[in-house]
Each structure stands twice: as C-alpha cells, then as structure tokens.
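[audit] Reproducing an earlier prediction to check determinism. Same input, same settings, fresh worker. If the tokens differ from the archived copy the diff job will pick it up downstream; this log only records the rerun itself.
[audit] input (352 residues):
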Amino acid sequence: MNFRTLRLAACAAALTLPVAAALAQSAPRVKDVYEVGPSVYVRALTVEPAKAALWVGTSAGVHEVDLASGKLRNTFTRKEGLANEYVFAVGLDRSGYKWFGTNAGGVSRYKDGQWKTFFPMHGLADYWIYAFAQQKNGDFWIGTWAGANRVDAKTGKFSTYVKELVNEWVYGIGVDAQDRVWFGTEGGVSMYDGKRWVSWTHKDGLGAPNSDNLPFSANTGLGTRTRHDLSVSAEGPATYNPNYVFAIQVARDGSVWAGTWGGGASRWDGKAWTNLTTRDGLAGNIVYSIAEGSDGALWFGTNNGVSRWDGKAFTNFGMKEGLLEKNVYALAVAPGGDLWVGTRKGVARIGR
C-alpha cells in the first residue's frame, strides 16, 4: 500500500497573492491528501500526541504516520501481528498500548513491538470490534457487535454488558467529565454512571424527524448478526433509521453528540435532545464520525462530506474542496488544530 502526499494546487489562482494568503489564514481548507489505495477504506483515525503520530486504521491494515511531516513510519498487517487487516477502531490507553478493533479478528494490542490478540475465549464479547474508550481509573471499554466489554485496569479481567444496553451492536463510546460512559448503538444511546443505566431512542428526541419521507432502513449500514454485512450506504437511494448511532462525542462543554443514520447530528444538553440536519446546513444526514476542534467547533463526517459547526453556522468540505470521496468515516484532531479526514482511497488534512 502506498501512503503518499499530493500537494493540492491553489484553487484561487485568479486572486492576488496577498488576498489569497489572507483567505488561507482565515478559513480552513484542505491542505494535503494522502492516498492508501483506490479500493481501501479508512475506517479509523486516532492521534497519539506523545509520539506525534497519527494511527490510520484501514480495510487493509494500519499505518503509523508522522504528524509533522506526513511521512509513513510503519505499516502493520497480519504479517506484523494484526489478527485481521480490516481495522474499524484504533484505541490508545494511558499505558501506551495501541488497541486495534478488527472485523472478525477480535482485538489486537500492540506496544514496543509486542503483540497480543484477544478473542471471545479470553473474555471478549465478540470478534467484531468498533470502539474504544478509557475511564479515569484506567478501566478500558470496548464496543462490539455483542455488547460492550469493560477491561479492569488492575486485574485485566473482561466484563460484558449486553442486556443493560438499549441495543447490543455498539459503534461509539465516550467518557464524560463525570466519568459516565456513553454508548452509541444500532438502537439508540445508552449511558452508564457506575450504578445505573439510562437509554434514549428516537421517541425521546434522538435523531431528527423524517422530513424527506425517506424509506426506513431495517438493515442498517454496518451489519446485522445474521449477515455481518460491512457495506454502507455509499450507493443507491438514501434511507432513514434515526435510532442507529454511528458515533459518540463528548464535548468540552459537557454536551454529548451522536451521529445518526438519516437523522443528522443529535446533541444532548443534559435535559433534551436537539438535532441538526441538512436543513440547518449539515452536509449530509448520515453522520459517521464526530470530532471536536481545539477551538471548540464540532466536525461531522457525513455521507456527503465534512461539516464544521461553530455553534451558529456550518462550513462544508466535499470532493470539490479536495476530499478523495464524499463518505467520511473517520475524523481526528491533531494538537495543532488540523483535522484529519478518513474516506475511501485515503486521508485528507484540513487546516488553516
């Protein structure tokens, strides 16, 4: 696989240099594009500030990229120790371990050249892994297609939660300032505060109404237990399933954001859900990924590009702005403020 840089040509050639420079400094733009292969999907992006590294999980392995130069440091496949090369999630814990959640290969954990893979025989809930998060005490959470695992930081023992969740297919996990754990699932959002579980669905306000009268999607995008279909709605007519949550993001102001299937981006303020959709300026109503910028702006990866929400208005980036593909499955913010965007074919970097 190639991971090479394509320097984008200036898109405002008609402008004078001073004006173009001023615009470049004031507005985010697609600065670079890194290709991984025409048929390869980038499903996960995670920044490791301590090592100035970007971890890129793809359908053909994992790349470690130098954030400053954009140069490839390492590539990991089955040959190097991955249990499966289709990687949907990359997690980092405070002990320096990298956790790679795979499609049908369980979890592979890596540190300093040493690998360990976890299967259901070790306590993992399932072989299909989609999310990671860590609590203040070090307990590590894993989202799977058969519930959520909590890995005890002291003992390493796996505990599994299924019935407590609103739905067993877990795609996103976040931990808030109160150390509560939030789960995005195929059936809504669940929250665990250490003692009790609470859940929300479309009936509670999660996901916007079906204003465009789209057909309901009973088979959601990433799969069902009977099929394990890894396709997403990249082709064909749009569909709607507001209970299906792709992503969870806990913002610094305490709000919790959920990316839904057709219902746009949903925000929980502690009392109620509100929703942002294409009618508000969001690029697409299927929200695969969410990240918060260093300036507090929210970024949404959708089925029609990337949207930046400053609290008042959206700024959108699509293929005409430089993205390799319109479906944006992964987002990550670097310490300097640049946003990394994962699509089919590769990664783009948006910055000022």
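[audit] rerun output stored. Observation attached for the diff report: The domain at 4-8+17-351 is CATH 2.130.10.10 (Methylamine Dehydrogenase; Chain H).
[audit] end
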